[in-house]
Each structure stands twice: as structure tokens, then as C-alpha cells.
């Protein structure tokens, strides 16, 4: 798959390298072409680098790490994104004392409003950067969730695969409106990491408890608890 | 500990029985005294039952299951709650297509506004009823989180203990304002259970990944990813 990284900071570099290791073609974009090229040179693995415009033109799947900056502001022609999958991995700023404002519109929905012909998917906003050091192994042993929300089912499925190959456990989180809830999870885990001092390796997982146990203890439901 | 259950529906009965099994003194309250007594009679384990007023007067810790109904509406004298710990386990209604409104004020904060001299703690709102069938074993093997938010540290600590003894893994989630985020988790998991058809045994856990692994792979941080 051809993957373009818009804004090759820590988040973009980490995910780009992990996907390149899995055989994907990765292009690191930056506002400064030389910076994009330098990232690719250091990363190796057959990656390329250059401007954000070049990354957007190159790719089928685009990781958008420029928080709150819209394609109409960052690209010379946002139409290049039409039909493409855009992964929005961003969270709002952390406010003082973690007093997050209510999420009336998600960053992902705002992005989708700017490029209505692209297929925007929310994902990768509920873990710190440091967790990528553990990908793909031993990360896969921990069942760390990546919550994937977007209106295009095929785009969600593609992003879920991109999560799986680097060791995460994707959780289909439905339509793009649900990005409001998923960004709320991002706010929550940052409060736990920093406010509650659990550190950068604090992660969220959704687990469905095993059915065998449910059956074994099913008798309790009828007799004792209700 | 003396625990009063306000509103002895499924949630109240399950938690009350689980705590009674652990040796706590439990009083099941109801709008209808006879109903409260019937719940206690069926539950056994030395539990008592009667009116919500009686349950509130009896207890040091109160589980408030009457969603959105305030003490000033439900009790003849809300001052009986002064100084006591009130656990708010409620979530808002599920709206059509899970289009949850943004949480500007949590149910727990609303409760605390009604009884400012009580110690309100948000907890037990991120799992379905069915998960209690697995408590305390085999539940303890799954590390299912109970997110505990409240302004009184000692009250949070008490509620965390009450979660631990029945097999959950409590997560200190800080001040009561964070109940907005915790209620957002409750909205999210219900969307996953019902909207995404993962069922009632879908659970949320916060896990801190093991430090040994972090150290073993620490070299990757410096060399490859950044």
C-alpha cells in the first residue's frame, strides 16, 4: 500500500517506519522538503521524503498528523485527497488541570468537512508515542486497542488491517460521528498518563470476556443475582 | 462497611449481593418498602431491606442507582447523606443511533450539586450488568477496570477497595469533574456493545504495559523510530 505521512514528527515517523517494515511504500511529507527527505534517509527501508503535497499525491492512505490544520491550509490543492483514506490520529490540546471541554465536534469531523470527498477515519489517538517502541512484538501480546471510526466501511477495514500488522488490536467503532467518543478516550487516557501519573505506557483495551466462562457461570444469573 | 442501595433494580441487587458475600452489611432500599424487603429476603446473606430513606440512614456508603433522580426528590431529608460516600453508577439514556450529546455536566456532578455535603464518587458505569455474574472469580483474571472519580481522596480509596474485593481492577481517575470523561467511556462501551454488536461482555481495561519490556526494547527508541 502507498502511505503518505503528512507532518513527519514523532508520531508520523514512528508509524511510517513501522508500516515500511511491513513492506508498505511510505512517503514522509513535511512543510520543508529537505526535512521530509532527511526523515526518509534516516528511516531507510526504501522510504521516500519530500513535501506534504508530494506525500498527498503519492499515497492511497494518508496519515494526517497536523493537528487542527486543514488540508485547504496545508496543501496547494486539497482535491488531490479525493477518494483517498485519511487517518486522523490527533487529539485536542491538554487544558490546564485536564479540564477538557465537551467535544461538540471532533477533529476528525472537522477534517472531513474540509475534504468531503476523502474518506476520513479516526484512529491511533489513544496511545502515547512510546507504545510504538513495542510494535509489532511484544505489543501484540497486550491486545492494545486501536479505535477505528469512519463512515466508509472499506476505509475502516483498511485502517484496521494497518493497525493489526503492527501489533495492535483494532476495534471497529462505527461511523465518523463516533470520533467524538474516541477523542474522548484520547482525553481520558492522557489524563490517566499524566494527571494520574501512570506514564506513557498506560493503554486502553476493549476486551470481550470469554464465552466459555459466561456459560459456566450462567447459573448464577438466574439464581443469585437477580 | 454499611452499604445502602438506593433503587434495588438489577444493578443495585447485583452489587449489593456481591458486597454482602464479602461480609459487608447491605440494606436494599426501594420507593416501595415491601419491594426492598423482598429483595433482601431473596438475597439472604444477612441483608436488610426497606425504603430508600431507611437505606440512606443506615449506610456509610450509598450506591445511587436512580439515574438522574436527585436526593432532594427521592429522600424525605437529603441531609441524612451529609458526610457519606455516594457512588453514582449511572449513564445517560442511549440516544437514537448512539448520537450521544456532548457531556457538558456529568450526572455525578449534578448529584453532587444536590448534596454538596456528601462525598460523591463516580464508578461502576462502564460495564453491563452481565459482567457481575463473573464476579469475583473468574472476573479478577480479566483485569476489568472500574474508573473511580471524586473530589474526596479517602472516598475514592474506599470505592476502589469495594471494586477490588469483587474482582475488578480499580483505576484512580481523579477529581469529580473527570466523571465527564468516565461517563464518556460509559457511552463509548455501550455503543460498542450494542451498536457494534460486541455484546454485554465487552469491557474496558486500562493497562500499564510492563516495564521490563520497555527496558528490553528501549534501544529502539534512540535508533530506529525517532
TrEMBL record, chains A, B:
Question: What InterPro entries does this protein map onto?
Answer: NAD(P)-bd_dom_sf, P5C_Rdtase_cat_N, STEAP_metalloreductase
What parts of the sequence cross the membrane?
none
Q: Name one GO molecular function term.
A: ferric-chelate reductase (NADPH) activity
Q: Which domain of life is it from?
A: Bacteria
Any Pfam family from its record, for instance, is F420_oxidored
**Key words, A-Z:** Oxidoreductase
Residues covered by the Pyrroline-5-carboxylate reductase catalytic N-terminal domain: 2-91
Cellular component GO terms, alphabetical: plasma membrane
Biological process terms in GO annotation: copper ion import
The protein here is known as Pyrroline-5-carboxylate reductase catalytic N-terminal domain-containing protein
In its UniProt entry, the species of origin is given as: Dulcicalothrix desertica PCC 7102
Lineage of the organism = Bacteria, Bacillati, Cyanobacteriota, Cyanophyceae, Nostocales
Amino acid at each position: 500500500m502507498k502511505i503518505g505521512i503528512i507532518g513527519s514528527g514523532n508520531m508520523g515517523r514512528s508509524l511510517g517506519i513501522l508500516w515500511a517494515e511491513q513492506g508498505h511504500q511510505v512517503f514522509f511529507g513535511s512543510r520543508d522538503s529537505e526535512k521530509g527527505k532527511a526523515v526518509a534517509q534516516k528511516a531507510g527501508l526504501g522510504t521516500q521524503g519530500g513535501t506534504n503535497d508530494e506525500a498527498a499525491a503519492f499515497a492511497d492512505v494518508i496519515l494526517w498528523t497536523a493537528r487542527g490544520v486543514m488540508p485547504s491550509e496545508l496543501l496547494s490543492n486539497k482535491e488531490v485527497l479525493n477518494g483517498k483514506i485519511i487517518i486522523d490520529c490527533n487529539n485536542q490540546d491538554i487544558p490546564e488541570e485536564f479540564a477538557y471541554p465537551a467535544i461538540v465536534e471532533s477533529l476528525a469531523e472537522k477534517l472531513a468537512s474540509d475534504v468531503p470527498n476523502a474518506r476520513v477515519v479516526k484512529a491511533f489517538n489513544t496511545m502515547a508515542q512510546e507504545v510504538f517502541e513495542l510494535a509489532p512484538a511484544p505489543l501484540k501480546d497486550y491486545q492494545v486497542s486501536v479505535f477505528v471510526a469512519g463512515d466508509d466501511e472499506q476505509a475502516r477495514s483498511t485502517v484496521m488491517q494497518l493497525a493489526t500488522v503492527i501489533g495492535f488490536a483494532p476495534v471497529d467503532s462505527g461511523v465518523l460521528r463516533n470520533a467524538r467518543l474516541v477523542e474522548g478516550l484520547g482525553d481520558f487516557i492522557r489524563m490517566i498518563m499524566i494527571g494520574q501519573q501512570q506514564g506513557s505506557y498506560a493503554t486502553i483495551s476493549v476486551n470481550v470476556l470469554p464465552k466459555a466462562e459466561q456459560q459456566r457461570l450462567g447459573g448464577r444469573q438466574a439464581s443469585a443475582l437477580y
